[in-house]
Amino acid sequence: MPDRDSQPLTAADIRERFLAYFGRQDHVRRPSASLVPADDPTLLFTNAGMVPFKKVFLGMEDPPDGRRRATTAQKCVRAGGKHNNLEQVAHTARHHTFFEMLGNFSFGDYFKRDAIRFAWEFVTGPRDRGNLGIDPRHLRVSVFRDDDEARALWQEIAGLPDACIYGLDEKDNFWQMA
Known about the structure:
- With 178 residues, the chain is α/β, with parallel strands linked by helices.
- The chain folds into 2 domains: 1-108, Bira Bifunctional Protein, Domain 2 (BirA Bifunctional Protein, domain 2, 2-Layer Sandwich); 110-178, no CATH class.
- It has 5 helices and 5 strands.
- It has helices at 11-24, 54-57, 112-124, 148-158, 170-173; strands at 28-29, 69-77, 98-106, 141-144, 165-168.
- α3 packs across α4 (148-158).
- The chain is globular and about 45 Å long.
- The N and C termini lie far apart (52 Å).
């Protein structure tokens, strides 16, 4: 019988492992919000995991229940706008209009160091502890091209050589709400 740690994980397995991992890191698990945002006239659909927290990030509301960490599996639709890949749908196996975005959020509680540590531990940590168990030799990461701090943290925390850290520009490695 094959080793269970060598068996492929399903999408449901990955989702549950992600949410459970961040739960162990004191993130409160939040349900997926509606695909149609009720109080945001700038969006037709929820197109990212942060949409339910947009007012928190903009400083217009406090975090839900005063909790400064959250994790979600947010259902999203992307059918237009700047994050649109509509022309790629049905032409590639990885572009879809509907998907689930896994997210871990800090509302002023932690920043790059912990975010990188959490990501690396979840992706490379042992499967038998609820992580993904991916061999670090097969991984590469990207940072914003001028973010020397993030590059140094990936080297320090993950032990990645500089050749495995790609500095990309605004088009390929930068996200903003506006």
